[in-house]
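Today's session is about reading a structure prediction critically. Students often jump straight to the picture, but the first step is always the sequence itself: look for stretches that repeat, for charged clusters, for runs of hydrophobic residues. Only then move on to the predicted structure, which in these notes is written as discrete structure tokens rather than atom positions. Here is the chain we will use throughout the hour.
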Amino acid sequence: MRHAYLLLLALGLPACDDGEEAPNVPLDLSADLGGEPIDAGGEGIDAGGEGIDAGGEGIDAGGEAGLAIAGAWHDGFMPHDITAEAWRMGEGADISVFHIEVIDEVGEHLVALGDANNAWNPGLYSRFDWAWEGEALYYCQIIFDAETLEAARAASGADRADLMGAGCGGFPWSALTPR
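Below is the predicted structure for this chain, in token form.
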């Protein structure tokens, strides 16, 4: 329901609360809105192109956290805390924070801006791909130094067919286990 209201608001259609019947205005839902389909926890939403802009506030895709892989994880080296707003890896003084700007649940990747305080590549964009193999979750930070959001979005994804070999830029993907 929230999505329908936001769609109407974005289209500039007036709300009628004075008892009058709303005008019958046909909507062309086949238009290319420039986004990839996402799993909205039911019927789904197809925005038809390259991703959903989370605008720094995340998206509500029908799940509690708004991102299918949200949670507290560990990759064998460091903790990862993932929300619809940010991906945090490391702890204490060694933490890196990536502010999520685009989530593509169907394509299983997101694009995030490295925090200005990150030790490596601050202020640059990263693309994080994820893949499930049975119950196991893997991730690959395939891009970590893109100058622009557009460059990170346009980059080729990691090789999902080679999780254990060289599918992540010449390295194996990293397994994430729940903490």
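Discussion point for the tutorial: The first strand starts at residue 37 and ends at 38.
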